[in-house]
Amino acid sequence: MKTLNEKVILVTGASRGIGAEVAQQLALAGAKVIVNYAGGTAAAEETVNAIIAAGGEAIALQADVSKADEVANLFDAAIAHYGKIDVLVNNAGIMITKLLKDTTDEDFTRQFDVNVRGTFNTLREAATKLADGGSIINFSSTTTRLLMPTYSTYVATKGAVEQLTRVFAKEVGARGINVNAVLPGPTNTELFTKGKPQQVIDHLASLNAFNRLGQPSDVAKVVVFLAGDDAKWISAQTIGLNGAMA
Ligand code: NDP
């Protein structure tokens, strides 16, 4: 059974990595998907083409989530195309890891602009433009539980995403909208693997109970559930997707 038939779902940062897999799994479950991206036009088109090739429906829409006007246009363009948005998946994010003493003003601002302002911008649009009875899935990270050196600003941004989740859930519950955050552990994407020696990747993969790296599909399957009506009574929660790592 296709659990997401008739639902229109906006996935931010869906050109690659976890977002691309989430978009494809949502479409397989019957949703019409808006594949948002910042700069990766070709990759976003690949995601859309993969969805259409599998019998699904999707369009790609460019918008930098850190820019309020672009996010407003993204919502309006998606609604103009599909008539509504039922579910928002706030997946777009970046990670800069450095000791705090080496973190530049630019690193700090960029990270907060994409991860926190980006989530804020989409939630503000969703407050009035998401359909009644909709769902929102924000992306935090298991690093907010691990609290490892070099992750201070990234963890600070994701801590903010978790708090936005908890408060916003109470603001939009009256419209039947539930809001949750997922916290993936180390997951096999460019964001995680880039710049890491294989032995560091292997070590981090060994710290969960399953002794393997998470895959985008591990995360996507949970997002499909949270986007569906059966998950409606789950709201304001932070859900670890990390094989018992933390
Ligand atoms: P990737 O770097 O693989 O992909 C990031 C995606 O976000 C790309 O599609 C990129 O689009 C998009 N993006 C980046 N900046 C913007 C922006 N300003 N506006 C719109 N889209 C943007 O990351 P992951 O798939 O690994 O991460 C996805 C989410 O999961 C992030 O929020 C991350 O923090 C979180 N996460 C990831 C973990 C991991 O181990 N991978 C662990 C825990 C959490 P484009 O191609 O156009 O640049």
From TrEMBL:
Name of a matching Pfam family: adh_short_C2
UniProt organism field: Mucilaginibacter pocheonensis
A GO molecular-function annotation: 3-oxoacyl-[acyl-carrier-protein] reductase (NADPH) activity
Catalytic activity, EC: 1.1.1.100
Domain Ketoreductase, residue spans: 7-185
Enzyme class at the top of the EC tree: oxidoreductase
Family: Belongs to the short-chain dehydrogenases/reductases (SDR) family.
Keywords carried by this UniProt record: Oxidoreductase
Protein name (record): 3-oxoacyl-[acyl-carrier protein] reductase
Matches recorded under InterPro entries: KR_dom, NAD(P)-bd_dom_sf, Sc_DH/Rdtase_CS, SDR_fam
